[in-house]
Amino acid sequence: MKITNHTHLLTQIKTVGLVCKPNDTTLMPYVEEIKSALQLQGVALLIEQTSAQMLGYKGVSFEQMCEESDFLISLGGDGSLIALCRKSFAYHKPVLGIYAGQLGFLTDIQTDEIRQFIEELFLGHYRIDIRMMLEISLHVKGKIEKIVAFNDIVLSRSKISHMSTIKAYVDGKLFNSYYGDGLIVSTPTGSTAYNLSAGGPVVYPLTEALILTPICPHSLSQRPLVLPVDFEISFESDGDTVIVIDGQDTYNMNEIERVCVRSAKEGARLIHSLDRDYFDVLKKKLHWGHV
Ligand SMILES: NC(=O)c1ccc[n+]([C@@H]2O[C@H](COP(=O)([O-])OP(=O)(O)OC[C@H]3O[C@@H](n4cnc5c(N)ncnc54)[C@H](O)[C@@H]3O)[C@@H](O)[C@H]2O)c1
Ligand SMILES: Nc1ncnc2c1ncn2[C@@H]1O[C@H](COP(=O)(O)OP(=O)(O)OP(=O)(O)O)[C@@H](O)[C@H]1O
């Protein structure tokens, strides 16, 4: 399936949803800023109940927020944005990341830009990028559990003292066996996360590809691999391997016979400022090109 890289702008915005980084009460002034900037536009703000409870507001369920909102805001770091994109995947709502974290590679709007960006958004001065996501199928005792990933799925050794062995297949045909600390399957957006630390390539986030990068492979011949977006890759490993999705969900391979990874039919829709330039972000946040 062809996934386009940009999507149409929102036509009419009446309601916006908000989720905050957990356990951070310092976010209160920014929530007030978002609320009043939206009020000026005649737009209602729905705050998800866990975030609302943390800050003393009246909240709504996550599902109600997703159903009733025209777009969603994540107020926090990259992890909060990733969690929101994953949890709201089925609702196909655009997501705006407002940066209140440590690195903020994905969340490009700073807290001191909230008012100005919201004004610009209502003038149509923004873009929505479609970021490829992964659909992961875990095969357990004849049943299939499906999960989505925004950055990556990591198959990692579970014991510090042992290597893991991972067999990798394309369309059922074995194409490699990885021996070492594990393997990362990353989206282009996730290429600047764990994949980068493991020596994988930086891949422009609107590219469509599957990136496979071994972690500390015990071999002179294992290299990162970039595969076409329409490949379905599957993996088998032993009980000494764990699976980690976006650093947020963990499964033990003990109970899993096979893991299949493919591009999800829908991508995440990220709202960005028109000024955002990927290479500027690489330079500013990851010191790209610095000597
Ligand atoms: N050794 C490593 O580099 C390592 C180890 C474990 C997990 N991770 C990454 O952490 C990600 C989860 O992020 P988190 O913020 O929830 O966890 P986290 O709080 O543990 O932080 C991971 C760091 O990676 C940054 N990050 C996350 N996604 C990024 C992206 N697409 N591009 C550039 N930087 C990014 C975050 O801002 C944060 O500084 C996982 O998907 C995985 O890729 C990296
Ligand atoms: N809704 C959520 N559900 C579960 N975990 C979450 C959620 N939001 C954030 N987290 C986790 O909480 C941790 C901190 O959140 P977040 O990444 O947003 O802030 P940060 O670490 O300060 O910023 P950054 O990731 O930009 O450095 C991360 O490990 C993230 O995965």
Automatic annotation (TrEMBL):
Read off the InterPro entries from this record: ATP-NAD_kinase_N (IPR017438), ATP-NAD_kinase_PpnK-typ_C (IPR017437), NAD/diacylglycerol_kinase_sf (IPR016064), NADK (IPR002504)
* EC code(s) of this entry: 2.7.1.23
Q: Does the keyword Nucleotide-binding apply?
A: yes
Residues annotated for NAD(+) binding in this entry: D78, G79, N151, D152, H162, D181, T192, A193, Y194, N195, L196, S197, Q248
Q: Which GO terms describe its cellular component?
A: cytoplasm
Q: Does Signal count among this protein's keywords?
A: no
| Catalytically driven reaction(s) | NAD(+) + ATP = ADP + NADP(+) + H(+)
A UniProt-annotated Pfam family: NAD_kinase
Report the domain of life of the source organism. Answer: Bacteria
Q: What does the entry give for GO biological process?
A: NAD+ metabolic process; NADP+ biosynthetic process
- Listed SUPFAM superfamilies: NAD kinase/diacylglycerol kinase-like (SSF111331)
MF annotations from Gene Ontology: ATP binding; metal ion binding; NAD binding; NAD+ kinase activity
**Cofactor(s) named in the record:** a divalent metal cation
Q: Where in the cell is it found?
A: Cytoplasm
Q: Which UniProt keywords apply?
A: ATP-binding, Cytoplasm, Kinase, NAD, NADP, Nucleotide-binding, Transferase
Summary of the function given for this chain in its UniProt record: Involved in the regulation of the intracellular balance of NAD and NADP, and is a key enzyme in the biosynthesis of NADP. Catalyzes specifically the phosphorylation on 2'-hydroxyl of the adenosine moiety of NAD to yield NADP.
Q: Which family does it belong to?
A: Belongs to the NAD kinase family.
HAMAP family to which the protein is assigned, alphabetical: NAD_kinase
Name used for this protein in its record:
NAD kinase
Q: Which organism is it from?
A: Sulfurospirillum barnesii (strain ATCC 700032 / DSM 10660 / SES-3)
What does the record give as the organism's lineage? Answer: Bacteria, Pseudomonadati, Campylobacterota, Epsilonproteobacteria, Campylobacterales
